[in-house]
Structure formats: structure tokens, C-alpha cells
């Protein structure tokens, strides 16, 4: 009997894949407290070594730029003021930012020490090359899953070599190393150790992860915590609501968590949407006021923090647009050389603000399939494509324009050969898979804190080209990894 590899994956392989994923924490928690494996690609995507090397070279420079933009409070306040009026959530962030940093006439110096754990997402466009989709400066997770996906494909190569090779695009391709989990943990340990030393204290550093209530992506988070625990760091998890009753100030602006003690690093895996600050029991006149004030409170203490409010503003879609529209030489004010600025420019896709002129141009002259309309939202479901863009623009009021931007739509290379997605313990052949490449970086107080000059591994999410939403959570995405070809 002739088995067609395009239609069949042996049940034993599917079983092995699902069990490997669960055993290695590559899973989501379900509402009934069971675990379900993440969707996975059976074999990795290929990328040209030169393209990958270029991205590796650029992302630390981008992170250096964003680090310094995030600390330029005057620039953030002046350049994002219109967007803050148009988007209520960012209006709240801007108000928090002003509380933390003061005004141009009365500056405040927050005690927190900025730790930027960033993921920059790219697509390798068929015509224009690899370009940035977005910056993620808050809750930039899934580095552990990224490293695990690379390890999973190494497992497939060893255990099921014939299957692995049969779905690989190029038999000569070499896996791209991925230490996303390891390097992110190293960066956090470096920051925690420095803060601990600032107070001349002994004992284990303490890492606080701020999480969403009923979070389903707990395993990715716990993998990071385990890696920190293995390096002698104590880890704790709290929601903003819990923190509002548990955080206090110690001597010398030390941040203290009731029942735990001094905190060295705070890492926000929540805080990018209103619901993270919502506490209905408080009956607040201004939505989410009390819990969002926890951001201000934390920044007033000597603690390593990701993300600062400044970092969140500096990685917004509007800031991405402003940096894209700015001449490269203007970047020099934020500590990058002109040569570095030009490298950064090489990966930024064209963006346009929304105003009456842009809307008229889009409706009368633009090729609509070449653009995507974005608001300031994080995660899936915040993009509008094609003919739907005109309909959405027509519904916007003038007051809402500054919350939106047009961005060049990226059309990445489709995989040359079909692949198999393993989802819900079933195998599905995908003929038109495309991939989103997220590269992690870690900087503390403006300096790289990984063994790779600030670079910290990658996350690959692949999806059918026909699908607009490629999130692992919110779309048709599957975890993937990279192999390099010349």
C-alpha cells in the first residue's frame, strides 16, 4: 500500500507529539484546569541565513532606540498627546506617565530601573524583505514556547527522521539556535542581582510576575519561573487587584510585598488592556483608577521593571508610525549612530496617519490590498484589511482618527512545500503556510543583558496565508521554528 505523506501522519507520531508538548509545558490551561497542547508544526520553516543575520543585527539596535525613547518623557508627552485624546486607554496611560514623570516645568525622577524585555515581530515580505509588524514592550511573552518549539523539532528530527525530512523544505537546512527561555531568564537574573546588590542584601532575589486573573497561558509563564528558580530566584505571581492590598514601601524606596518581602524585579504579563485593571467591587467613578495606580506606585520604587509606562507608550503603534516617518538622522538624539539608524530604517514598513487627506487618498488612489488599518490594541483582532478598511474609516469620527494608522501590508513567502499542523490531537495538511518571526531582546538600564549582546532568541508563529489572525491564542497560528539555508 502506497501511503501519501501529504495526507497521512501515523497515529503514533501524533500521540508522541501531543505527549511531548504536554510533558514539556507547551500547553494552555483550560477552564476546567486541564491542559491542552499548543498547536505545532511538524517541521520548521526555512529562512535565508543572510536575512536572519540581518534581523539579529537590527533588533538590539531597535531595542536601544526604544529604551532611550521610553526614557524621553517630554518627547512621549508631546508626540503622543493627540493619540491619547483619541484612545481612552492610552489617555489613561498618558495620565499615569505624567503622574510618574511630572510636567516640563516640574519634572519628577522615578526610582524604578527600566528593564526592557521586548519582542519585535517581523514578516519576510516577498517583495520588500523582512519588515517590522509591531513592537511588544509589555507582556512580551512566549520566549519559553519559542525555545520549546525549536527543541520539539530537534525531537522530531531524532525520533521520526523520515517524517521530519519529508515535510522539510530543504534537506540541507540547519536549525537556528534558540535560547529564548534561557537568555530571557539570564537577563532577569542580571537585573535582580543588581537591584539586590544596590541594597547590600543577602539571600535570594525575588521576582514578581503581574498576571491576569484566570490566565490560560500559565505554562509559558511557569517555564520562565522555573528557569529563574533554577538560578536561585524566588518567584511570585499576583494580579493588580491582589497587589493593591499587598504592596507597601520599605526604607530607601524598597518595594515590599506583604508576606513575601522585598521585590527586585517586576514583570508585567498584564496591563495592556482595561480589563486587567477592572475591579467592579470598587464601584469607581473613573474606570480602573485604583488598580492602574499600582503602575505609578511601583515606578516610585527602586526595582527593575518591565514594562514601565514609558516603555508601553514607546512601543505603541503610533510611536512605531512616528519613528517610521522620521528621517534616520533624527534617531541620533536617542543614542544610536547614523549607520545604526539606517539599519533600523531598513526594517520599518511604511505607515500613514489617519486624516481627511489620507482617507481621500485611500478611497480614490490606493491599492486597498496593499494596506492594513490598525488601532492601538495588543494581540489579535485589531487589524482591518482590504475593502473593510474604507467601511471602518467611514465610521470613525474625526476625534478617533489619531488612534488609528495605515500600514503597508506584508505578504510573506508561502512555504514551498505543504506542512502538517497538529492541533487538538489531529493532523491537518496546510498548503499555504506563512510565518511571523518574533525576536526577543533584553536591556537593563539601557545596556544589553544577554550572552548574545541583547538578543534573546525567537518565537515563530505560522498560519495559513488565507487567515488574517495568526495568534496561537486568538487565531489559526501554530508554533514553529527556524532552519537556515544559504
From TrEMBL:
Cofactor(s) the protein needs: Mg(2+)
Keywords: ATP-binding, Glutathione biosynthesis, Ligase, Magnesium, Metal-binding, Nucleotide-binding
Classification via Gene3D superfamilies: 3.30.1490.50, 3.30.1490.80, ATP-grasp fold, B domain, Glutathione synthase, substrate-binding domain superfamily, eukaryotic, Glutathione Synthetase, Chain A, domain 3
GO molecular function, one term: glutathione synthase activity
One Pfam assignment: GSH_synth_ATP
Documented EC number(s): 6.3.2.3
Pathway assignment: Sulfur metabolism; glutathione biosynthesis; glutathione from L-cysteine and L-glutamate: step 2/2
Catalytic EC class: ligase
InterPro entries in the cross-refs: Glutathione_synthase, Glutathione_synthase_a-hlx, Glutathione_synthase_C_euk, Glutathione_synthase_N_euk, GSH-S_sub-bd_sf, GSH_synth_subst-bd, PreATP-grasp_dom_sf
Source superkingdom: Bacteria
Keyword Iron: no
SUPFAM superfamilies in UniProt: Glutathione synthetase ATP-binding domain-like (SSF56059), PreATP-grasp domain (SSF52440)
GO cellular component, one term: cytosol
Domain (Glutathione synthase substrate-binding): residue spans on this chain: 206-314
Family note: Belongs to the eukaryotic GSH synthase family.
Record-given protein name: glutathione synthase
Amino acid at each position: 500500500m502506497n501511503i501519501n505523506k501529504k495526507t497521512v501522519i501515523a497515529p503514533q507520531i501524533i500521540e508522541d507529539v501531543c505527549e511531548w508538548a504536554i510533558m514539556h509545558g507547551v500547553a494552555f490551561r483550560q477552564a476546567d484546569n486541564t491542559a491542552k497542547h499548543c498547536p505545532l508544526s511538524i517541521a520548521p520553516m526555512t529562512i535565508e541565513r543572510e536575512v536572519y543575520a540581518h534581523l539579529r543585527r537590527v533588533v538590539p539596535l531597535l531595542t536601544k532606540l526604544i529604551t532611550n525613547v521610553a526614557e524621553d518623557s517630554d518627547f512621549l508627552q508631546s508626540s503622543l498627546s493627540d493619540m491619547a485624546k483619541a484612545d481612552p486607554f492610552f489617555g489613561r496611560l498618558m495620565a499615569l506617565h505624567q503622574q510618574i514623570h511630572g510636567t516640563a516645568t516640574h519634572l519628577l525622577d522615578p526610582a524604578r530601573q527600566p528593564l526592557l524585555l521586548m519582542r519585535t515581530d517581523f514578516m519576510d515580505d516577498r517583495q520588500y524583505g523582512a519588515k517590522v509588524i509591531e513592537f511588544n514592550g509589555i507582556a512580551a511573552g512566549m520566549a519559553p514556547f519559542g525555545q520549546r518549539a525549536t527543541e520539539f523539532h530537534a525531537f522530531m528530527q531524532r525520533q521520526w527522521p523520515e517524517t521530519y525530512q519529508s515535510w522539510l523544505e530543504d534537506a540541507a537546512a540547519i536549525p537556528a539556535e534558540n535560547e529564548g527561555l534561557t537568555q530571557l531568564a539570564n537577563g532577569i537574573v542580571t537585573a535582580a542581582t543588581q537591584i539586590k546588590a544596590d541594597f547590600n542584601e543577602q539571600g535570594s532575589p525575588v521576582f514578581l510576575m503581574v498576571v491576569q486573573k484566570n490566565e490560560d497561558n500559565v505554562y509559558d509563564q511557569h517555564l520562565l519561573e522555573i528557569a529563574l528558580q533554577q538560578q536561585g530566584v524566588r518567584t511570585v505571581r499576583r494580579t493588580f487587584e491582589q497587589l493593591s492590598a499587598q504592596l507597601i514601601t520599605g526604607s530607601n524606596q524598597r518595594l515590599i510585598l506583604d508576606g513575601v518581602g522585598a521585590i527586585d524585579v517586576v514583570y508585567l504579563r498584564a496591563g495592556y488592556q482595561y480589563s486587567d485593571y477592572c475591579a467592579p467591587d470598587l464601584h469607581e467613578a473613573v474606570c480602573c483608577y485604583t488598580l492602574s495606580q499600582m503602575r505609578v506606585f511601583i515606578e516610585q520604587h527602586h526595582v527593575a521593571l518591565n514594562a514601565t509606562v514609558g516603555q508601553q507608550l514607546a512601543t505603541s503603534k503610533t510611536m512605531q508610525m512616528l519613528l517610521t516617518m522620521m528621517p534616520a538622522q533624527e534617531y541620533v538624539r536617542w543614542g544610536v549612530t547614523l549607520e545604526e539608524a539606517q539599519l533600523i530604517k531598513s526594517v520599518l514598513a511604511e505607515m500613514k496617519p489617519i486624516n481627511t487627506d489620507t482617507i481621500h487618498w485611500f478611497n480614490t488612489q490606493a491599492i486597498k490590498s496593499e494596506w492594513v488599518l490598525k488601532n492601538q490594541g495588543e494581540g489579535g483582532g485589531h487589524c482591518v484589511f482590504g475593502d473593510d478598511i474604507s467601511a471602518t474609516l467611514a465610521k470613525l469620527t474625526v476625534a478617533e482618527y489619531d488612534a488609528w494608522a495605515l500600514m503597508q501590508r506584508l505578504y510573506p513567502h508561502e512555504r514551498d512545500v505543504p506542512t502538517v499542523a497538529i492541533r487538538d490531537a489531529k493532523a491537518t495538511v496546510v498548503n499555504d503556510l506563512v510565518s511571523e518571526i518574533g525576536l526577543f531582546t533584553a536591556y537593563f538600564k539601557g545596556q544589553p543583558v544577554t550572552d548574545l549582546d541583547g538578543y534573546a532568541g525567537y518565537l515563530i508563529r505560522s498560519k495559513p496565508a488565507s487567515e488574517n489572525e495568526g495568534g496561537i491564542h486568538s487565531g489559526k497560528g501554530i508554533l514553529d521554528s527556524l532552519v537556515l539555508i544559504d
